[in-house]
Amino acid sequence: MFFLRGTVLLGLLIAFAGCSSDVTINEIDGGTTDTDTDTDTDTDTDTDTDSDTDTDTDTDTDSDTDSDTDTDLAPTVIDTIPGLAATGVADDISIVVTFSEAMDTTTTEAAFSSASIGTVGFLWSSGDTVLMIDPDTDLVYASGTDEIAVLADEYTFTIATTATDAGGTPMESAFISNFFTLREITNVLSAALGLTGAVVSTGVVQTGAGDDPVAGDHDDNLQRKGFMGFDISGLPSTIVGVAQADVASDQWLVSGTPFDTLGDISINHITAAALDQNAFDVTPLSALGVFSDSATYEMKTQDATAAVADDITNARTYSQYRLEFATATDSDGVTDRARFSYNNSTLTIIYLLP
Fold first, then answer.
1. What's residue 209's pLDDT?
2. 260 by DSSP, 3-state: which?
3. Among residues 206, 231, 243, 235, which one has the least CA distance to residue 335?
4. How far apart are the C-alpha atoms of 282 and 289, rounded to whole Å?
5. How much is the pLDDT for 118?
6. Closest to 89 in 3D by CA, of 108, 112, 116
């Protein structure tokens, strides 16, 4: 029995010989082997500390300090029509103000003020960045006869700092702008000698009436046409428009019954180098209308605004007009004519200057 136990014990020792575990046999008592296995793990930590510390410190501190600290810039006015201190502004102008960003329409409209412009209407566009300010009544022009003495009227407006953008940020400073309207100058021109008078249908200048314009026929049954010419070469070259022009002449003598037999006297806008056959026959540039329809002695007047504007545009030296009855002659061998005063023939022009 002892031999057997010894054999078993030897086998166990051999079996564990290759292990690093310490096997302690405390008791071998009657076949009960109390094996207290104290596993002493010999950890061969072959720490291959290949300290290849690839310190690729990719400190990508993308300091994109996009300081989104909500710094909302204050809105500003970036453009106006008319511009600051603009001159020659028309009386029916609509003011246009362009802002740097979308605005709060209520606060911006309330921030507008102008003692000179008066009450206005508002119209927004372009995403509330453009404000049109339309005066309720037309502005006025300074007027007179002396273009040097007449000074243009100034208009001023303000947009206060109470105007805010769509996000509620107010303007940092008030915006103030001004402009000047056109001036209205009146010039009365007298008839030009040599281009005022009468021409017979034969092309001959009628001399019996002096330089007075005459329209109608004589006892020779030949038609007469009257002419008025005005020298406009002395008008300022800076004229930007004609507000009004009227041609007038004093009908001071009527012979026979021309308005009964020949009709009304019409006035036509023409251009001619002299009082001759060409002036008598030339096709009018435009027909202005009826100049006289009765034998009443009085000043006869006709609107010539478009005619004068055309003369100025085409740089003509003279503004010329022709008077003629609807019917050339009644062939009754009786003088039927209307005579106008050379001395009382005028062209009144109201023109616009910056």
1. 75
2. helix
3. 206
4. 17
5. 95
6. 116
Residue 336 · residue 321 · CB < 8 Å: no
Burial 233-263 (b: 16+ CB within 10 A, else e): eebeeebeebbebbbbbbbeebebebbebbe
- Alpha-carbon distances of 33 from 5, 25, 26, rounded to whole Å: 10, 8, 8
Instruction: Return the amino acid letter for 273.
Output: A
Supply the pTM of this predicted model: 0.76
Judge contact between 62 and 109, C-beta under 8 A. no
Structure tokens at 166: 């769509």
Q: What is the C-alpha to C-alpha distance for residues 91 and 93, in angstroms, rounded to an integer?
A: 6
Summarize the chain as % helix, strand, coil (round to 5): 10, 40, 50
261 within 8 A of 327, measured Cβ to Cβ: yes
For residue range 188-202, list pLDDT tens digits in order.
999 999 999 999 999
- Name the average pLDDT for the chain: 85
Asked whether the CA dihedral 106, 117, 179, 240 is positive or negative, the reply is: positive
- Tell me the one-letter amino acid at 233: S
Strand partners, 123: 132
User: Tokens representing 171?
Assistant: 């303007």
Q: Are 259 and 293 in contact (CB under 8 A)?
A: yes
What is the β-pairing status of strands 183-190 and 130-135?
unpaired
Instruction: Give, as one character, the DSSP assignment of residue 164.
Output: B
For the stretch 38-86, pLDDT in tens is 434 343 434 343 444 444 444 444 444 444 445 689 999 999 999 999 9
